[in-house]
Amino acid sequence: MKRYLILEDGSIFKGEGFGANITTTGEVVFTTGMTGYQEAVTDQSFANQILVFTNPLIGNYGVNLDDYESIEPRCKGVICHELARTSSNWRQQSSFADFLVQMNIPGIKGIDTRALTKKLRSAGTMKGRIIDSTDDLEHAFSQLNATVVNKNLVAQVSTSKPYPNPGSKRNVVVIDFGLKHSILRELAKRDCNTIVLPYNATAEDIFKLKPDGVLLTNGPGDPKSLPAAIEMIQKVEQKLPLFGICLGHQLFALANGADTFKMKFGHRGFNHPVREIASGRICFTSQNHGYAVAPDSVDNDVMNITYREINDGTVEGLRHKNYPAFSVQFHPDAAPGPHDAVDIFDDFMHMIDTRKDERNA
Amino acid sequence: MPKRTDIHKIMVIGSGPIIIGQAAEFDYSGTQACMALREEGYEVVLVNSNPATIMTDTEIADRVYIEPLTTDSVSRIIRQEYPDAILPTLGGQVGLNMAMSLSEAGILDELGIELLGTKLTAINQAEDRELFKELMNDLNEPIPPSKTVNTTQEALDFADEIGYPVIVRPAFTMGGTGGGLCDNKDQLAQIAANGLDLSPVTQCLIEKSITGYKEIEFEVMRDHKDNTMVVCSMENFDPVGIHTGDSIVFAPTQTLADREYQILRDVSLRLISALKIEGGCNVQLALDPNSFNYNVIEVNPRVSRSSALASKATGYPIAKMAAKIAVGLTLDEIKNPVTGTTFAEFEPALDYVVAKIPRWPFDKFARANRKLGTQMKATGEVMAIGRTAEEALQKAVRSLEIDEKDLFSDEAQAATDQKLEEKIMHPQDDRIFYLTEAFRRGYTIEELHELTKINAYFLDLLKHITELEVEICKNPNNLESLEKAKKYGFSDMTVAKLWNSKESKIRALRKSNKLIPVYKMVDTCAAEFESQTPYFYSTYDMENESVPSDRKSILVVGSGPIRIGQGVEFDYATVHSVKAIQKLGYEAIVMNSNPETVSTDFSVSDKLYFEPLTLEDVLNVIELEKPLGVIVQFGGQTAINLAAGLVENGVKILGTTVEDLDRAEDRELFDQVINNLGLKQPIGKTATTQEGVVKIAAEIGYPVLVRPSYVLGGRAMEIVNDEIELNDYLEHNAKAAIDHPILVDAYLEGMECEVDAICDGKDVLLPGIMEHIEHAGVHSGDSMAVYPPQSFSEDIKQQIVDATKKLAVALKCVGIMNIQFIIHDNEAYVLEVNPRASRTVPFLSKITGIEMAQVATKVILGQSLKELGFKSGLYPESKTIHVKAPVFSFSKLEDVDSYLGPEMKSTGEVMGSDHTFEKALLKAFAGAKMELPMSGNVLLTIDSNDKEAVLPVAQRFSRVGYRLFATNGTAAFLKEHGLHVMKVNKIGEDGKSDLDILKIIKDGQIQLVINTMSHDQEVTSDGFTIRQTAIEHNVPLLTSLNTADALGRAMENRTFATDVIK
């Protein structure tokens, strides 16, 4: 079926629909990863966003249950150049198109995604809408322009009730701002007894569980829309080892006096080289963020910048000077993307263990 | 970390002559490396024996040596230059092996010379199978069960233990030479014995076969701070079992989910770190299609063919970065030259699909065994880029420049189902055509997967193409179908075929409906960052990114894939033409389809279009760029063949016009020119019936040279001595017919020579005359040649110069041309004129210092020779003698007769230069791996017609201390002339001697075989068997007495005389 992608700058891209046959509106963002479309679409950080894949072909290895990053993805749409006719992989359980139908996510293919990416690169992220070719264009544009970006995305994607992910070694509380399953997988690998709490958990809720450490997850949207979480962090970091990832990193920064800003078109992909300042070591990291910590806003008496992107200098990691608390902007849990930084989870474990030893001593 | 300041002078070792498994990619990497090192301020000393390379241009390095790549010769250079360090990782296997042998010789330790890039231990760990196994065990990386063996029995025992099928991999051989897949005992016994023979350390790895696994490659980089990264991932269309150099390859990987991709990425980075490589490295992996299980197949601790492909596929200049890393720079401090804004520490993201298809030499070697396996057989490759995999694949197919212009093959169409299945099960170069045909016949993906183990995704690409064929067929002149066809890479020619129309009509229809390609940029980052790379590919999509500049531009058409007869020489000329265009202030635009070459380095030209070299694709670029004109003289026959079509479409060909090109190439028109000028040429006639051929042959008088008129480059050309041979030829090669006439020429005995001439329409410059060592009958590309001529009188030279001047002016040549002469009875006969740059251009350019392609380009662009400072006539001869020797790849190809004839067989060449002819000869032979010990045994197996001629050759070898071995007749003849000869039995002959001819070759008793027997190409003939045995056992072989005489002469010169006084 012929469908259009329209953008707030007035441009129209003609393509063919697949996936769910619904009209959708969202922020159009691009990702440069050449694999991992399933992980990307199920990443809750893409809530409210329409995802452009720069890789010209997606769907080539189908979809399988193992690689879900969330059960109910909130990504608003998928834009690609070509959808594979045949998918072939030993783990595949359904085709990507069927999966999108099931998840009620619309897709549009046959788009010059390179031209679209260049537009987003130079004009910045824009609102867009996927519509039927038969729809009234004028009406569609006015609908698009009238759409207000949802400020309360985390509430939509976070769990509403606590739930456990049992293990036997360390007790870790995970605050779900839109968590990717890969974070739970990494904790499980390290045999953590994990309890996931909703995004609006208070410091008191957390302390009641007497955890050994707290992990702040990734999630969608503007960190400044979560003032309660910032407050929670300010209390928790004084008492417990704390580790923030992505949105969790931005919240950690805000909690410690730094500022965040909206990037022009963000970092989405997994070839972002990040330098660990202490060692000079460089990792290729999986990233998905449209906001970042303003470098000048970081008070060096409170926090050290531990990682930076080597090309644009984005603040990629912070560590508190007085508390066992740190954060990274990228995804050490990868999925999709390189595993170069996965040992950061071990750093967190080490931090927890040291703290435990101190307390037991 | 800044670059090292404790070293100043660095020696770079090139890769020597082009052979199968080692082609132009190392000219590209070596050139990049030299330029990168000089950019960092180091003094660069380059050594390479191959003159047909850009890297041996004097402007590439500070000091350039074109000398044999032997330990002796390189050591001599080292003792002249005293480099602080050697960079051996950019000259392929030859470069690495040279570094190892220099180290073993002790000269590196003695002079305190450091190896940069990869340490010897790492080279050993990656190359020595046992050490590699140990390393993999230490790292806990799975490899297929394997064992190193030194005898065939050990191989058989191990195979019994692990079960068949097994793979044999000989140690330290190039392109896996001598290896193979064995399903049973008999096969293993044969292949293992051969492999052990070919391995310089008599060592083979016997390995459990993992046929059917996905074959994945990663190109990775590392610096001394242990920063590691992946440049490119690639996936083979063909599963494990076919050498990656013979596989169709896609980039990036097409069937891996992120989990699988990341597992393999991790492995690759672990390996490069473990080997502590500073630079680039290639990791080959096999992945079980049904689990996460993988195996490490191989690590190449150097820049490789795959790195050249990866560089062109991503835009990331691996060799350049590797050279910078080797001198201490780190990835996070080198700028990415593509974006100019990001750093070299960046894993490229592709937003297109790349397809590579190997180019095999089976069009030249009709009788060769075309089966593909672990031994590489391709001479070159093509690459194509598209926004869909189908588009990339179809563009790559038409880039091959073979008979098939698309996925239709007459042979496949004519095949029975049984033959079709056989062709599909036993992979050959043409399997893809049979697979496509199978889909047309209704075979399913499952069935074909069962037969081939090729991934369903890849098979579906072909199935999709056949479905599109049906759809297009059903909808003639339908624009929607046409658009779809174009998006998936169909050419106008194919659409025309399906619509029963004409290519030109499809083009017109497309253009009138604005269905034209757009050009997208290759930028390493999928458009995330702004880039300035002038590197483009075509596709059918919305936005065109290639904007023609305001400058006046010239388009240079490259020469496509490396094949026999059209090698790296043409890329050399193309690059020089580009340089000249730029020097004159024009914008130089290059089109080419070969990823191995310097010309497809986007930094060479002002703009690069990586495209198939077909009329449609070239016209598309021209219509966008609107260049002043097109230069076709430097891209070999590929470019010349495009000229007529371009002119028909109103394109201006710069230089010699198409009518004049035609006058040189069309036989009748050319005869007229020759007659009008009063020049001599061998009598030649044409016939269109069998009887006619026999009749004119008798008229001309035997021996005659016969060939079909419609093939070029000596294909199917033979010398026949009588009517019986002629009938045999006609039966085997070509049926004469009205549309397929046969040409018959008188075969004149005499010395051949050739000249390249540059003409501005008035004056004619001859940079030099090259005299062939072999008599007429051996293709000029396979002949040894010497400059300046050693046996021509001034009168003959004058005849050559006069004839050349007359021809150039009469043919209205503007630019460059090549003329071949034969000197018969002290008279110069014109054999052939090629109205374009020939393969001798780089050779003569290096010798004379005249950048011939540049001078020719300037002439083409309107400058006169006089303005350029050249006088008309023969350029003054140099004092130094230069000898060119051909290099062959026979050991890589089964069932190819190594007897040299009118059909070209060599893949590359070397140059030997010195102050005397003999020394130059010796060096040329050494460069071509014909270095013989001071004394030894030579086997003479001579055609009965050659007996008289062999005597002086035999005498020479006898004088330098070689014992002669010969079969009965020759032995008796030589004994009569007082020579000491050992008599050997002929094949199948019993008893007369203790020496069996094949056995003494196999046992290593013979150091040189001279064989001129039975060149009827029958694979069962004795002559063929002897030649094949020599090649299989790495025994130097000569099939021309002229070459043998030259070798004898050279050897005499290095030996003291042993004259008896009484």
UniProtKB/TrEMBL annotation, chain A:
Keywords: Amino-acid biosynthesis, Arginine biosynthesis, ATP-binding, Glutamine amidotransferase, Ligase, Nucleotide-binding, Pyrimidine biosynthesis. The keyword Cell cycle does not apply. It catalyses: L-glutamine + H2O = L-glutamate + NH4(+); hydrogencarbonate + L-glutamine + 2 ATP + H2O = carbamoyl phosphate + L-glutamate + 2 ADP + phosphate + 2 H(+). InterPro entries: Anth_synth/Amidotransfase, CarbamoylP_synth_ssu, CarbamoylP_synth_ssu_N, CarbP_synth_ssu_N_sf, Class_I_gatase-like, CPSase_GATase1, GATASE. Residues 1-131 form the Carbamoyl-phosphate synthase small subunit N-terminal domain. The active site is at C246, H331, D333. Residues 1-170 are annotated as: CPSase. L-glutamine binds at S45, G219, G221, L247, Q250, N288, G290, Y291. GO terms for molecular function: ATP binding; carbamoyl-phosphate synthase (glutamine-hydrolyzing) activity; glutaminase activity. Composed of two chains; the small (or glutamine) chain promotes the hydrolysis of glutamine to ammonia, which is used by the large (or ammonia) chain to synthesize carbamoyl phosphate. Tetramer of heterodimers (alpha,beta)4. PANTHER family: CARBAMOYL-PHOSPHATE SYNTHASE SMALL CHAIN (PTHR43418:SF7), MULTIFUNCTIONAL TRYPTOPHAN BIOSYNTHESIS PROTEIN-RELATED (PTHR43418). Belongs to the CarA family. Small subunit of the glutamine-dependent carbamoyl phosphate synthetase (CPSase). CPSase catalyzes the formation of carbamoyl phosphate from the ammonia moiety of glutamine, carbonate, and phosphate donated by ATP, constituting the first step of 2 biosynthetic pathways, one leading to arginine and/or urea and the other to pyrimidine nucleotides. The small subunit (glutamine amidotransferase) binds and cleaves glutamine to supply the large subunit with the substrate ammonia. This is Carbamoyl phosphate synthase small chain. It comes from Liquorilactobacillus mali. The gene is carA.
